[in-house]
Amino acid sequence: MTSAEQSAHAAATVVVELTGSAPADAHAVFGVLHTAYASDRAPDDVPQEPDSGGRTTVWTAAFDTTDVREQPHPVPLGAPVTAVLQGGYQAVEGLRVTLSSAFAVNVVGTSSGDQEKEVQLRLASR
Predict the structure, then answer these.
(1) How far apart are CA 56 and CA 43, in angstroms?
(2) Spatial distance between the Cα atoms of 37 and 48, rounded to a whole number of angstroms
(3) Residue pLDDT, tens place only, 49-106
(4) CA distance 37 to 9
(5) Which one of 59, 91, 99, 120 has the fewest beta carbons within 10 angstroms of its own beta carbon?
(6) Among residues 126, 86, 83, which one has the least CA distance to residue 107?
(7) Closest of 13, 25, 12 to residue 82, by C-alpha
(8) What span, in angstroms and rounded, lies between the C-alpha atoms of 6 and 15?
(9) What number of other Cβ atoms are within 10 A of residue 50's Cβ?
(10) Predicted structure pTM score
(11) What angle in degrees, to the nearest 10, is found between the helix axes of 89-100 and 23-36?
């Protein structure tokens, strides 16, 4: 892979962090994203609830937004999920739009840099 190809791939990758949710809800969100994008997590990699001693659990996956395989359908959640998206501007926006096809999406906050954007979302059932 050339350095230009590596840069393009990095710009298309979005890291997704999920918090404040049950493992089943995290799996539902990752499942929606697996419908649309390739990921560093296997589709059958179900988030587990670790013995965190009462601390917040964060589940993370990276998604390659270069090609959208399929638009996901609405999926119910047991409770709202907080999602933080980090990546290139266009990639983050595309992934946010994909999530909005499956969930009610509320933008909670954003942070922008030269090459990357971070968006915090609140996802709920539609």
Answers:
(1) 23
(2) 22
(3) 666 566 678 889 999 999 889 999 999 999 999 999 999 999 999 999 999 999 999 9
(4) 13
(5) 120
(6) 83
(7) 25
(8) 16
(9) 9
(10) 0.87
(11) 110
